[in-house]
Design brief:
globular, 3 helices, single chain, alpha+beta, 30% strand
Length: 105
């Protein structure tokens, strides 16, 4: 069975949905063009943003192989993220609608 890790990205404090969404689109678009093999290891994303205090967040399920690489790229793009817990794994069956969107590759 495939196991995925959860990566949670966070907005800047008080950043609008539109601005944060635009930054994420820019990041993922660059990843598709620059690192298509790594992008293929991104399985799913939550269908909407969550809020915690004055920040927005969104979660992604990724293959274990990205656990070291993706956080470095997010940091380089100045996208805040929570530490990846490599012991907290998910199956593809846990990424179901309506909470998750499976990314077509």
């Amino acid at each position: 069975m495939d196991e995925f890790l959860c990566v949670t990205v966070r907005s800047d404090p008080s950043e609008s949905v539109e601005t944060f969404n635009r930054r994420l689109i820019e990041f993922w678009s660059a990843m598709i063009r620059g690192w298509p093999e790594q992008y293929a290891l991104v399985y799913a994303e939550t269908t909407g943003f969550q809020t915690s205090g004055d920040r927005l967040s969104r979660q992604y399920l990724v293959a274990r192989e990205l656990s070291g690489w993706l956080p470095r790229e997010l940091a380089a793009a100045e996208i805040a993220h929570e530490p990846v817990d490599e012991l907290d794994t998910y199956s593809k069956f846990e990424a179901t609608t309506p909470e998750w969107f499976q990314i077509p590759h």
